[in-house]
């Protein structure tokens, strides 16, 4: 096992790329989808089940973990990997996005963000230095720079100002991170939907130098068209030889479009959150399992899926346990959704490696267009 | 695999017995603890995980399943085993106890019980004939007679009247059940805490003839002393060569005391329900994982337990995920509790087989007396 962080690009197809990120805790096949383990658990899943879906890496949330059970406590207990029983790579976000969306009494200054916890009202500070400290205490393998993401709608001026603050914070993050062999620090490009600002941000980050680069400030409600608009050019400003991470994305068709545009890593709560609310993602589209049309249906969610929910249970059963409020509903649907997402990623990786991404994408859209399933 | 229902007694130690119940769907080692799968799921567990704890048989609830998703629907979908992905034996209760504790607008007559559903207010009837029909539609391997269990406190007269009604219903259950090779029908002894009534009930049931006999009307709030008082004599009224089932029991020390008194089968929601409320059962007693004393404790719930919760997680983690309201809390603690219960049953079976039950029971009580765990 390698003791260094690295990225090897194996093949490209158009702008799409496939490769492997190496870390001391194992390899991450790219394009990679990272399930979200907010509070040291991927909700409704055991970690061995998450691994069984094909996940190489999880995402942990700095904001949630710093508040409960606290980064210091996790460090005393041996770090996040041991704490949550996941020995493969973990990426942690910086807390910057969630502090702006979840915390109360926020005060943003050049130094950072002061805020009150949404859990118990206690007062905290997040800054580049504190975010680096927390992510080090957690033992994160891939650490994200502390950045600011302006709420939409924002004027170009506001976006520019915010981006330049994030670039100063990126330098402070780099300085505070120091030299930690085997651990990576990723910069986050900002700049909204303005190419000049995106380019300015990318140049600032490259001048500092990072192990990977995220495209930030997307998937915040701007819509798929605007997101793809940025992804049509922004990844091109980033180094070819480093992984590119699109934060908080997304639906299956968002993922496919992002991969087509040169993205290597993504994360999203959607497959796990949907699983708990009775929404399943399949090759043939989204299935709302609470719909009464499933109540007598002996067929699986997806007859071609090999996940435990599809191998062993009917739509009628999944409908019943959802309606009855049983935990197995969230457990099975989350497993299915994560399995589907990872299968999609494997399909994308194989298609890129074999130079047939266009056909794969056409088939992906055609299957979804056919509708979920024929009536009984 | 046998195609008939049968019971082979392998060894006794005092009044305690160990043996095997044979069914076409597999063997049940006795004394047996049956996890409860109320609504076609053992809450917070996948069936393969329930099996991994050592369970040979599950219990399903007629009352819940007849209301949602309905017995007719389950029958159309291939029966309860297929529906819930459990191919081993299932025992179903008759609905008699739960209709009296959960339904509204109940009207009890010689015919049966009319009631309104607690789910949607719809009107239903449960009678010996309807209960047999529902349990047949579900495909239950061990069917329970429809009986009435009087609410406590009750006068001896009320208990006698209720018991005699249950005995008439037992005959009607036997008649309605008919001849179903490979499926068993169990009678239920009533009679409260009055030996003469218990004996009268046992004689009535034996005259009808059943494949097994339950001791009913206990574990309804009368306390352990009163329950053991009845178990000191009541099992002796039942045939030696048929399984004896104590319904709705119980805590680990209830189980040990019941097995000492000649009980072969038990069921209880306690291990699964406790798991969801942060209560763990261990060799050394009950652990309330939400207690702050666990928040920095790197030790497992029980260092000698081999369940997934104890193998891979600290008390600090279990405390954290409980406090954070995460589903993995109920998943891990339920698994632990069911594992502990099944390990206890295996210990009892081995001790009886080897004629050392008294020493096993003394050790069981001594370990619990020592307290949960030493302070850090």
UniProtKB/TrEMBL annotation, chains A, B:
It catalyses: 7-aminomethyl-7-carbaguanine + guanosine(34) in tRNA = 7-aminomethyl-7-carbaguanosine(34) in tRNA + guanine. Zn(2+) binds at residues 305, 307, 310, 336. GO terms for biological process: tRNA queuosine(34) biosynthetic process. Substrate binds at residues 93-97, 147, 190, 217. GO terms for molecular function: metal ion binding; tRNA-guanosine(34) queuine transglycosylase activity. Its cofactor is Zn(2+). It is an enzyme of class 2 (transferase). InterPro entries: ArchSynthase1/Queuine_TRR, TGT, TGT-like_sf, tRNA_ribo_trans-like. Belongs to the queuine tRNA-ribosyltransferase family. Homodimer. Within each dimer, one monomer is responsible for RNA recognition and catalysis, while the other monomer binds to the replacement base PreQ1. NCBIfam families: Q_tRNA_tgt (TIGR00430), tgt_general (TIGR00449). Catalyzes the base-exchange of a guanine (G) residue with the queuine precursor 7-aminomethyl-7-deazaguanine (PreQ1) at position 34 (anticodon wobble position) in tRNAs with GU(N) anticodons (tRNA-Asp, -Asn, -His and -Tyr). Catalysis occurs through a double-displacement mechanism. The nucleophile active site attacks the C1' of nucleotide 34 to detach the guanine base from the RNA, forming a covalent enzyme-RNA intermediate. The proton acceptor active site deprotonates the incoming PreQ1, allowing a nucleophilic attack on the C1' of the ribose to form the product. This is Queuine tRNA-ribosyltransferase. It comes from Gemmobacter lutimaris.
């Amino acid at each position: 096992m390698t003791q260094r962080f690295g990225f090897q690009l194996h093949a490209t197809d158009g702008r799409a790329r496939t490769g492997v990120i190496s870390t001391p805790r194992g390899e991450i096949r790219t394009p990679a989808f990272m399930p979200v383990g907010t509070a040291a658990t991927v909700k409704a899943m055991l970690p061995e089940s998450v691994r069984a879906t094909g996940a190489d890496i999880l995402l942990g949330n700095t904001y949630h973990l710093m508040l409960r059970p606290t980064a210091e406590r996790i460090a005393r207990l041996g770090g996040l990997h041991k704490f949550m029983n996941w020995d493969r790579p973990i990426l942690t976000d910086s807390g910057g996005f969630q502090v702006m969306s979840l915390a109360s009494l926020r005060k943003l200054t050049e130094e950072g963000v002061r805020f009150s916890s949404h859990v118990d009202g206690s007062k905290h500070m997040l800054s580049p230095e504190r975010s680096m400290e927390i992510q080090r205490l957690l033992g994160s393998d891939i650490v994200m720079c502390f950045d600011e993401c302006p709420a939409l709608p924002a004027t170009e001026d506001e976006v520019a100002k915010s981006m330049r603050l994030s670039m100063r914070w990126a330098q402070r993050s780099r300085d505070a991170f120091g030299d930690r062999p085997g651990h990576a620090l990723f910069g986050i490009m900002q700049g909204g939907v303005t190419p000049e600002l995106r380019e300015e941000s990318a140049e600032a980050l490259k001048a500092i130098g990072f192990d990977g680069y995220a495209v930030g400030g997307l998937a915040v409600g701007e819509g798929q068209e605007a997101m793809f608009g940025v992804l049509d050019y922004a990844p091109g400003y980033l180094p070819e030889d480093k992984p590119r991470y699109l934060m908080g994305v997304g639906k299956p068709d968002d993922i496919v479009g992002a991969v087509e545009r040169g993205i290597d890593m993504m994360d999203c709560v959607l497959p796990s959150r949907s699983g708990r609310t009775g929404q399943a993602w399949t090759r043939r589209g989204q299935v709302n399992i609470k719909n009464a049309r499933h109540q007598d249906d002996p067929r699986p969610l997806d007859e071609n899926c090999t996940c435990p929910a599809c191998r062993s249970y009917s739509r009628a059963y999944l409908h019943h346990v959802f309606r009855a409020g049983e935990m197995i509903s969230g457990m099975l649907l989350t497993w299915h959704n994560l399995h589907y997402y990872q299968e999609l990623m494997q399909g994308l990786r194989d298609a890129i490696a074999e130079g047939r991404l266009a056909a794969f994408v056409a088939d992906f859209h055609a299957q979804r267009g056919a509708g979920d399933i024929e009536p009984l």
